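pipeline stage [seq->struct] | target=YitT family protein | organism=Pseudogemmobacter faecipullorum | residues=200
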Amino acid sequence: MSQTAKHSALDDAQGLIFGTLMCGLGLQFLTHAGLITGQTAGLALLISYASGQSFGLIFFLVNLPFYWLGYRRIGLAFTVKSLIAVSLLSLISALLPQYLGFAKLGPLLAALLFGFVTGAGLLALFRHGSSLGGIGIVALMIQDRSGFRAGWVQMLFDLALFALALIWLPWERVLWSLPGVVILNLVLAINHRRDRYIAL
């Protein structure tokens, strides 16, 4: 496979905007049905559900410790883009509910839509040298170093988080959440591959 051309600043800007909007929309599906997800977003959602505090603020704070790791291991550009993406998603998640609602949305459909839409958003972020911080940074580091795909790394983390969620959430909500996480991670595992696309 030949070397691909680098993205321009404009390319990256539209990629970050598209990716965060898709992830924000995915979160709308998820939170409307009272479901959860994995990664740092799932951790932030659990804390938000338990405390009643804003998801956006918690998500931003949960990601703070990971930026130094991202800077040391992957580089300044990746870390800055990830900080921008996390900040945008925090803002979008606070604003979007004011303009978008659902009269009817079943939990299974909510989970499936979340998985596909958020998977597309994360792919856009990854392919423009960014992530939504946290476990995404760790997963990309592992993929770059070992070839073990980022989607599988995140799936393992998600399984542990879902087990933890059973302590605070009804088992039915946790169960309905599973298809979304599986779809999301399959989208990443199948499509985010360096032998098919040079992401950074």
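stage status: PASS
auto-comment: The helical segments are 9-32, 39-51, 55-73, 76-95, 107-127, 135-146, 150-165, 171-191. The two ends are 15 Å apart (CA to CA).
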